[in-house]
Target: LLM class F420-dependent oxidoreductase
Amino acid sequence: MVHIGYTMMTEQAGPRELVDHVVGAERAGFDFSVISDHSFPWLDAQGHAPYAWSVLGAAAQATSRIPLMTYVTCPTFRYHPAVVAQKAATMQLLSEGRFRLGLGSGENLNEHIVGAGWPAAHVRLEMLEEAVEIIRSLFAGGYVSHHGTHFDVENAKLWDLPDDPPPLGIAVSGDRSCEIAGTHGDLLIATEPKRELLTAFDAHGGAGKPRVGQLPVCYDPDRDAAVERAHRQFRWALGGWKVNAELPGPAGFAQASQHTRPEDVADAIPCGDDVDAFVDAVRPYVDAGFDEVALVQVGGDQQKSFLAWSEATLLPALAQL
Model:
């Protein structure tokens, strides 16, 4: 049976609301939760970008059962990997073992704020691999010094280290990231139900490790309202990650998606309240071999109704998968 998760989408809600939402997700019966880690929304219409790690700390205290996970944190530009290791170790302690650290090579949208430039994708993946090695070393305990191609660490140590460090998830989109995930990760993270990603992950040591996908949905009893909201806030998602990783701000995403039609979005994102359409959207992940799928309900002010419908209708239907 596939496990169904809930996404705290920091781009579309404020910090207190996000905590309230994940409390509601735990109450509704979601199996796990994830949170995006952004400094900008994708589009101005989303309107938010609180600090994910503060939200996570609050969520750890406000919930008792539901697992928490970054989806994903970039440990190479805004955050130094040694700082990410400290944050993740602290979260594992606060949550009493419910935290997983999801990592990825990032998007220009968020990482440009530190003024370090935005190198080519192969360099970003080199940086990610080195960052993961540093985080692993710090999780192992003791003092760590590292002088590598991209990062320096001088005599670092995690003084509050859980007995079981958080598992590391690595976001994948191609062969190189699958190699990093299979070699260094404890689980795979993806946003597309592509079986070839899992095959490449397995070929590099990922066989038997969990694989987590993510899917935007837009519940509303009024399907037209759902389609309009999904188009207004989520049309950027149709651009694909090769584009989405490069654009520097919401204005760029607005321009890149200006010709995307509402019907294009409705073809890609289940909209309305037809539970069979939502199940059909999850099924490709299950068929591809994903163990877990995190749903993203579009619209920061549309979470409570989605959670109530999920508890009563959607989660029981998805359990049949």
About this structure: The first helix runs from residue 15 to 28.
